[in-house]
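agent: user wants the full assembly modeled, not chains individually. Plan: 1) parse entity lines 2) check alphabet per entity 3) run joint structure prediction 4) return tokens. Steps 1-2 passed, three entities, 1204 residues total. Proceeding.
--- entities ---
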Amino acid sequence: MDVIGKSIVRKEAQDKVTGRAKYTHDYHSGAMLSGKIVISPYGHAKIMKIDTTEARKMSGVRAILAGEHFPLTGEDIRDRPPLAVDKVRYHGEAVALVVADTPAQAKKAADRIKIQYELLPVVHSPTQAFQKDAPLVHERLGEYTKENATPVPGTNIATHIKIRKGNMEKGWAESVTTVEADFSFAPSDHAAMETRCSTAEILPDGTIKIMTSSQAPFMVKQLIASYFNEDIGKIIVETPLVGGAFGGKASVQLEILAYLGSKAVGGLPVKILNTREEDILTSPCHIGLDAKIKFGADRQGKIKIANIRYLWDGGAYSDKAIDLTRAGAVDCTGPYNIENLWCDSYCMYTNHPYASPFRGFSHSELSFAIERTMDLLAEKLQIDPLELRLRNAIKQGDTTPTRVLLNKSNVGNLQKCIERLRELIRWDEGQMEEINDRFIRVKGISCSWKTSTIEPNASSGVILIFNRDGSINVMSGVVEIGTGTKTVLAQILAERLQMDVDKIHVRMEVDTQTTPEHWKTVASRGIYMAGRALLKAADDVINQLKEMASIVLRAPKEDLKVAESRVFLRDNPAIGLDFADICYGYQYPNGNSIGGQIIGKGNFILRHLSFLDPETGAGKPGPEWTVAAYGVEVEFDRRDYTYRLVKAVTVVDIGTVLNKKAALGQVMGAMSMGLAFAGRETFYFDKYGRVLNPQLRTYRPLRYGENPEYLVDFVLTPDLEAPYGARGVGEHGVLGMPAALGNALSVASGVSLHRLPLIPELIWKTKGGSGNATV
Amino acid sequence: MKMQIIDLHVNGTLRTVTVRFADTLLYAIRGKLGLTGAKPGCLNGDCGACTVNVDGWPMKSCLMLAIEAVGKNVTTIEGLKNTSIQQAFIENFAFQCGYCTPGFIMNCHSLILKHPDADDETIKEWLESNICRCTGYAEIEKAVKSVLEKK
Amino acid sequence: MLPFDFDYYKPTKLNEAVALYQSLDKKEKKPMFISGGTELITLGRINLAYTEAVIDLKEITECKVMKFEGDHLVYGSTLTLTKIEETNLFPLLTKTASEVADHTSRGKITLGGNICAQIFYRETVLPFLLADSQVMIVGSEGMKVVPINDIFKEQLQLKNGEFLVQLATDKRFIEAPYISIKRRQQWDTGYPLITVAALKMGEEVRVALSGLCPFPFRSKKLEDSLNNREWPINDRVDAALAELPRPILNDVEGSSDYRLFVLRNLLHDVLEGLDASF
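--- prediction returned ---
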């Protein structure tokens, strides 16, 4: 059959090119009310007074929520009021919620709510937050309920992850060369094209129905039950197709407001659709980072020691930033074998929008710091940067920062990725090529690795049911966010059952009442976890089919084979039964029937994951490490410091290619996102902590034609635990792009670049430009 | 709130809708006609997800008042039937989440009609109007060029 | 989602539009002329624009013309930028207009709308400033035709109830050598860091700028410095930079110092491209 590897067109393709594909906001009933959020105009301010008198008189207004103490929310630390009370901690924070008959009425009323603020000193960066005399974002940090976090009351530290490995004294003693550097960038945004949208309705019997554009509908159910003490069995969360997510829709926020809105109007259905400005400001963003890296190496360029400090810009509320801080710690060194290691990874509170996961989950961020440092080290040692990476590349037999022993399965082959990169980017032809007096072509490279630091007990389930023609319906809790995972699940099933993939139907929508749970659609873990559950379900189906057939065919199960939607005798395929004959029971010619409908089930839970030791970080944070190598080539103008992206290369050890074009698309799309993050995307803040660019005309993702030519290739080192050996691939294209671009531009401009985004003005400034430009 | 009854020519049919003068074409076709193919992405003319076709030209339906569309021919993604650009988007994997796709296709569709001989520069000029956050644009480029080459 | 309601009028005659404005103004409806109307929507939705009566000028015949009248090329104010580009009668205008917003939006944005915009770039005015064009304006005092350089001071100086009808440009300028460069914070999309448009008339180079200051402008003094052939090129550019109006923008697109750095290079490019003596 060989469906694996084929570029099977995604199952929902027709719907998506005809406008029939439906997203949360496309579901609308006439009775649905509209919720509108009023947001904080400042980064940090006391709420002195909220006056809703005028707003309440507006026509169509059903309810206004403001100033009320709802239960605190937040995943690891309950530090976030659904609506700000007493003070606001970031620009864009929800302060009030208006529920009205129409969106226009809600907006009109929201505009008439008068709020008086008194400004408070703003915490502008994680570095400032870390200082002893910094203003406090949370004065009552010690009083919050917490889990898996180590907040330090009286400071802005939300959590601190320690990695301690080897012997630091020995490491420094063995080093002849050291490099030390700081790196920094502000938060930015996911900018998924579909802004977040949630609806909620509470039925008279107490059933809470939520529809939401989310990567984590099962978490929505769990958290709403837990935050508001609701009966979890009465919460039903539906998620239709999602219009891009990139981690930003893994946080639970708008759902809570929709729920509170509905509750305030006696359970009537309420919809909240983020405007783009709210999606950028109010909903959680892409985390920022201040990093300090110190490496020591011996004469041969072998890195002996690393001392790393990450100050993550978690923003005003810790939510997922606690996990991001942990993920950054467990892979803190990048994909290099460093035996002596000290890393402090802090989640810092600031007066910035708070962070949610972003594609790569801390890894594109830390890779910028690590891989720029690698180039600085190469320069100091006068070793070719590619060679330096080869010499230190992680491999089986090495241990990770959290002391997981790597074997031939749980890590990919980084050396092979680097060698392939060498060819694709024509490294041996030289890093810099002069075009003329002004223009040069310059290449930069980088590497990455990533494991998925997910909850040790995260699980996934799949149910298979038949249609009477023998075709199969797949039900999985994976959300179709654009990655094509559900189509790949159909391929895996087709392969296992050796059947036509067109006879496999996939339920795209998730409904937490009838779809088996898939923890969250994050961390490139869809195929790994749901795929394993699916294979188990497929085996369950095969077993049941054979059982039925063995009775009808009067043959032992062991002699039967399943393929082409049939069960037949291994040595005589002519004798057999179609799925259609037995999937709803078998009927004998006289009408007697046996068996019943066949329902396949499968589940999966990750094996042997463990919590990290609080003092050393030792523990198993994720199942496997995917590795990759990257290159970027730019054409650089030495006069203007402007540049054009010419080529971008990613070589990733993907284990097995399940769907070629889909995999290439994931990698190229991620590269595009990484380059935009590296080259242009950032929040600009003013002294009040206000984000100055909350629109897509000022916050600018890559546009058509700004992209480079993409060169993508795969190395295939199977992960023995994964379906058909496939490793995750959704995130990896992002990870090395900022560093590779930074490395190329640092060489091109002749100055070391330590900040993002890499705009021409940054290069000009780093070159000391402002001194000679004034008139 | 003053409501107005207006006639819109949408996908070849005359439709009567009740709107405020302040309502955009996007709001009218989605909310009043149930044509949800055009997507709100920014409501500010920046992202192109709501692109429809007005008298043959691409139009961001969030930047047009419904009243301004009276007397014009509006085509939405639902009005395209088996066009080669739709097929090309499928074959070339030119979308992932699909949210920007109707807008992108409507823009490409107009481009192919208006400039069947479009060169790289023209294609870039036109397609810069839409944001796709999932792909890196390579697949969209292939899709649109595959149709232009056939013309 | 516009958080206010308005009445909508679509006059077909100039005097009708003028009269409508006057009567609506008297009724305190805060009337607003629109042609493309994009700013009504984008600024209105964030409470930076407000009206209770919209007067749409799109159907007024005089505002839709695009033709040569004798030695002059006449553009109506409600032509969309796309239409102007596609017809391409004035290559400098085509080039400058083609960098505004994006292609689809330019199918809605009009010439008059861009020149009279609240957003301070208003880049399509640059070619007309360079070409000493004439503008036709109508209002309660009737029609008037004025040199654009007399009436465009940072913005078009319209009195209450007046609107731009047409712009007329002498053919000589339309055929003159030109350069138009838009430099952005990064890559090919986004607002300008600086847009420079330049024309060469005889031996004289004319330069107009947008994005440098919170208004577009053409400066005679700056041009005099650039055209001073007695001096070496660097001195000419230095002298030109000393003649800039203030303030120099300092915002998220770029700092004022960086803008000056970019401008210096752009002025070199302009002279290199247009001045044979360079």
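agent: reporting back. The mean pLDDT of chain B is 97. Chain B has two domains: 3-79, 84-149.
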